[in-house]
Amino acid sequence: MTDAERLMRGFIPSLRESPFRIAPERVHELLAKMGGETWVLEIVDGPANFEAFPTTKEIEGTYAALLSLWAVAASVRVLSVLTQTAAEMNLSQVVITSGGPDSVAIELKNAALALIRNEEFSWEHPHLEPDSAADPSSQDGLTNNLFLAAASFIVLHECGHLVLGHHAYTALMHQQEHEADAWAVSWILDKGARTRAVRNRTLRANRLRTYATRRSPAGIRSDRNPFGI
Question: Domain extents for the chain?
Fold first, then answer.
């Protein structure tokens, strides 16, 4: 068993609920889009990735992808607390030094990238391990909330590919990715979802996705994946 599976399998039930919980007022509408039954979401071993299969209407992700995303969420959470503290102290800049108490943000970011490059990456941060059972109001719980918000966007992105009838191996790959992104954002924000809480979660999820994508090495999208992240 990889460290990624060991650390992330406890999140799978929450992950499967996440696309419904991010916009709870649209649960029945999303089920209708799925034909009345929830589509299968499986988490397996393999390179960090998520993909949708148009013929079977299934979505598949990997433990490495989940742990990488959690590491990004944890890093962003550390930076958020750090910048908030600096603002309260009227500081105009933040300096993170190697080995300092806040360097954990960089360590987590590096771990996220390492998991993209190698799904069998050994997690060497025992004091920073994910806790799927953390109290929602605790620091770990707040990190989990941020992680699940980002994960819900990714799952909805894959749902978007299926709902929009996208095709694998087409010259319109990049256009389809943008369309799936737009569908996921629209799903979260349209209709009754225009509350401050949902908007804030969406903004955090989009920032996480941008943060992870811009720091991902070329080739993160699997060649066998018609609908990659």
Answer: 3-214
In 44-68, which positions are buried (b, 16+ CB within 10 angstroms) versus exposed (e)?
Answer: eebbbbbbbbeeeeebbbbbbbbbb
Pairing of strands 50-53, 40-44: unpaired
Provide the strand spans (E) within the chain: 40-44, 50-53, 58-62
Structure confidence by residue, pLDDT tens digits, 47-105: 999 999 988 999 999 999 999 999 999 999 999 888 888 889 998 888 887 777 778 99
Distance CA 220, CA 88 (A): 38
Rounded distance between C-alpha atoms, residue 78 and residue 114, angstroms: 19
Half-sphere exposure of 82 (CA within 13 A, CB side): 18
What residues have CB less than 8 Å from 108, skipping those under 6 apart? Answer: 71, 72, 74, 75, 78, 125, 128
- Which residue, 39, 85, 65, 31, is CA-closest to 147? 65
Work out the number of other CB atoms within 10 angstroms of the CB of residue 141: 15
Q: Residue 78 burial (CB < 10 Å; 0-12/13-18/19+)?
A: buried
What is the Cα–Cα distance from 50 to 40, expressed in whole angstroms?
13
Q: What is the pLDDT of residues 199-220, one digit of tens each?
A: 565 555 555 555 444 443 332 2
Token digits of residue 187 = 């799903």
Q: Residue 159 class from Cβ within 10 Å (0-12 exposed, 13-18 middle, 19+ buried)?
A: buried
